[in-house]
Design brief:
Layout lengths: L79 E2 L6 E2 L6 E6 L9 E3 L2 E7 L14 E8 L5 E8 L19 E3 L2 E5 L4 E6 L24 E7 H5 L12 E3 L2 E5 L19 E5 L5 E5 L15 E5 L2 E7 L4 E6 L10 E6 L23 E3 L2 E5 L13 E4 L5 E2 L3 E7 L2 E4 L14 E5 L5 E5 L24 E3 L2 E5 L4 E6 L5 E6 L9 E3 L2 E5 L4 E6 L11 E4 L9 E3 L2 E5 L3 E5 L5
Parallel strand pairs: 19-23
Antiparallel strand pairs: 1-2, 3-38, 4-5, 5-6, 6-7, 8-9, 9-10, 10-11, 12-13, 13-14, 14-15, 16-17, 17-18, 18-19, 20-21, 21-22, 22-27, 24-25, 24-26, 28-29, 29-30, 30-31, 32-33, 33-34, 34-35, 36-37, 37-38
Length: 576
């Protein structure tokens, strides 16, 4: 949720668009000016200072999961859990600082800030008296960073429309964004919410919301709420999930607008897919619906913000398989400035319901490294394995910067074709894909006969992925949904090695302290040496987390945090 864990099915709900437009604009930024406040800068070498908080998905708005820390364990033992009581037996645990109980399905990546840890899950633990464990909720839980003590919980009751918009037991599938004493996140109900990080522990109600049912300090303190379904006419597919990015006073959000239960009809094709909001008030600054009627399935990616070529850009991955870059400011007259767009699918690829085709949407979050953009295409994990693509894109070009353009051959001329949902180019109808002279492709990794044996093998193929890349010292790592872990040269796309984890990976890699960590669906975390040498293509360790790891490992303040389906672990050398 940088990672989409949902199943497939849906129905529809429509409301009329209500846009509260604010004229608040960020000043334009010249190439030689100081960076805009809050914007992360793309650098090839990471800062030497140790990373403290990890306040958003990816740590910074560049989304590259490469914190700076030393002494991070490469071996640990989570101990045991009693099958009947669920109690933790720590007698054989090693390097475990604390364990916190989550729900039964946890897909939200941990975030650490202001002395607290925040993670999305469901309500199977029943942490609040008024919501016992048999009440299905989307839950954002807050724990004490040092002890793992439960502090407070935000509870999102399920939508009455059911699984079409809010799939049972999936919980909160995104990571929040935290700044100071404020937290912003997207609920499973299609809302953007701002919370007080301190909850009611400061003995203050910081928002206008008074709920008589809230009687203890373990409830969340809500500052403001913006309902995208009601105000913007959005109809999410199965789940609303986006890990918010921000620049200054502006929040950037993917609305998750998608298809209905037929998997064919878009109930709200005119609803926006991408929005910018005032973080203090929740007012909408601009909206954009670029994917429109071309949304393939759902939209669960998260935005990325970086200064690229002297211009602050916000990158959105659309449900049509395109990446869209807008100027990261308050827009003009309620609209953003589109800088460039990029089609992540071959023009002849075809969308077939149930994952049987070759055309993909994008669930992964774009990553910025050394001034370039990296993104992989994929589908809902329930759609199974399939052909994938990983792209390195130059963000300094403008307009349509796709690898190819779709054309119709009419006599001796070629006429550009409009953007189409199912298949951009059908050769049987006299349509062709031609190389784009304005292409921004730096390199592409899909499938290649690396060993020269005349065929492209399973391990020589990039499959569908819902994970992001992680890059350090020009070495790139990415997992795919066929269980392969790929190591490439970030500058050239040259493949160094692949490792078959023998299990699907839903999350993304972590690079820290000279090692690389990646979890899988079987519940194992593989630890590799940070190296491009094929001799290092085997993990130095493989640690069982007890059950599936759908999230991404992170590090904050020298502690490794890993969430499996049911528990969150704080891992630190020497702690038991």
């Amino acid at each position: 949720m940088q990672n989409k864990p949902f199943l497939s099915l849906l129905a529809v709900i429509c409301a009329w668009i209500l846009g509260a437009i604010v004229a608040t604009l960020l000043p334009e930024q010249k190439a030689d000016a100081e960076p805009a406040v809050g914007i992360a800068q793309p650098k090839s070498s990471e800062k030497s200072e140790p990373t403290k908080d990890w306040p958003m998905w990816g740590g910074t708005s560049l989304r590259n999961n490469v914190p700076v820390a030393t002494g991070i364990p490469t071996d640990w033992n989570i101990g045991r859990f009693d099958r009947k009581t669920g109690e933790w037996d720590s007698s054989k645990a090693e390097n475990i600082q604390w364990v916190a109980k989550l729900g039964s399905q946890s897909y939200g990546n941990p975030v650490v800030a202001s002395g607290k840890v925040f993670v999305g899950t469901n309500n199977s633990s029943g942490l609040l008296p008024r919501y016992p464990s048999d009440v299905d909720l989307g839950v954002l839980v807050c724990y004490d960073e040092k002890t793992g003590e439960f502090l407070w919980q935000h509870s999102s009751e399920k939508l009455p429309t059911g699984r079409v918009h809010d799939w049972p037991l999936q919980g909160i599938c995104c990571a929040p964004y935290v700044e100071g004493n404020r937290l912003w996140f997207v609920t499973s109900r299609g809302e953007v919410r701002c919370l007080d990080v301190e909850g009611f522990y400061d003995a203050e109600n910081d928002g206008p919301y008074v709920d008589e049912k809230v009687t203890d300090k373990h409830e969340a303190d809500v500052i403001w709420v913006f309902n995208m379904m009601e105000k913007l006419g959005v109809s999410q597919h199965n789940m609303c999930s986006c890990s918010i990015a921000a620049l200054g006073d502006i929040l950037f959000v993917n609305t998750s607008n998608g298809v209905d239960e037929s998997h064919i009809v878009l109930p709200s094709p005119d609803a926006p897919s991408f929005i910018a909001m005032n973080k203090n008030t929740g007012e909408v600054l601009w909206t954009n619906g670029s994917p429109a009627e071309n949304i393939l399935h759902g939209q669960w990616s998260s935005p990325t913000v970086a200064e690229l070529g002297g211009v602050p850009q916000v990158l959105f991955a659309g449900g049509d398989g395109w990446v869209y870059s807008f100027k990261a400011d308050g827009g003009k007259d309620g609209k953003p400035e589109l800088l460039w767009k990029f089609d992540g699918n071959p023009k002849e690829s075809k969308w077939v319901i149930g994952g049987r085709g070759t055309r993909n949407n994008i669930i992964a979050t774009p990553v910025v490294y050394d001034g370039n953009v990296y993104v992989a295409v994929g589908q809902d994990p329930e759609h199974g394995e399939g052909e994938g693509h990983l792209w390195c894109i130059d963000p300094n070009k403008r307009g349509d910067v796709s690898p190819q353009l779709a054309m119709k051959v009419e006599g001796s001329t070629r006429v550009p074709l409009p953007h189409r949902r199912i298949q951009a180019v059908n050769p049987e109808d006299g349509e062709v894909a031609v190389d784009n002279p304005n292409s921004a492709v730096i390199w592409h990794y899909g499938g290649e006969d690396f060993d020269g044996d005349g065929r492209i093998s399973f391990e020589e193929t990039m499959h569908r992925s819902i994970g992001t890349v992680a890059i350090k010292d020009d070495i790139l790592y990415i997992s795919d949904f066929s269980g392969l872990f790929h190591c490439l040269n970030a500058k050239t796309g040259k493949r160094y090695w692949t490792y078959d984890m023998l299990a699907a990976a839903w999350g993304s890699p972590l690079i820290v302290d000279g090692h690389v960590y990646i979890g899988d669906e079987d519940g194992d975390v593989c630890v590799f040496k940070l190296s491009s040498d094929p001799d290092d293509a085997e993990p130095i360790n493989e640690v069982s987390m007890g059950n599936s790891v759908y999230s991404t490992p992170i590090v904050a303040n020298g502690v490794l945090f890993i969430a499996n389906k049911t528990h969150l672990f704080a891992i630190k050398a020497g702690d038991e």
